[in-house]
């Protein structure tokens, strides 16, 4: 099976989701307000144009030219072992990002399930606070959700770009 995007829309949506991330959705309004509003937004957009878009373009070009992942692509396009290390640096960065996001996703999935079961609907503010404290102190529930997410992620990734996305 060829490891290519099934269609252009899948590529665009995945690239946008990866580029935007939860930080821009959750933190951005707060940071923009604290940083000066319009002035912050102007500087932010200039930096996106000067740094973010060129780096994204380079990553896309690397993938197209090497027809492989960045880990292998740096080695294919350069004969110096230093560039292989840069590919591994990307893998390390992805691992750190995954550790952060899997915990957030576990909490979201856990509370989504709690909400669907109707358990949270009948609780008042104090009971919700106690429920949150109980869940936070009993990390076994959240760890079980994390394992479920990791297993689901494994099977999605194992299917590759054609069937996984």
Automatic annotation (TrEMBL):
It comes from marine metagenome. InterPro entries: Na/ntran_symport (IPR000175), SNS_sf (IPR037272). It is a multi-pass membrane protein. Pfam families: SNF. SUPFAM superfamilies: SNF-like. The keyword Transmembrane applies. It is found in: Membrane. The chain crosses the membrane at residues 9-26, 38-62, 86-112, 139-157. Keywords: Membrane, Transmembrane, Transmembrane helix, Transport. This is Sodium-dependent transporter. GO terms for cellular component: membrane. The lineage of its organism: unclassified sequences, metagenomes, ecological metagenomes.
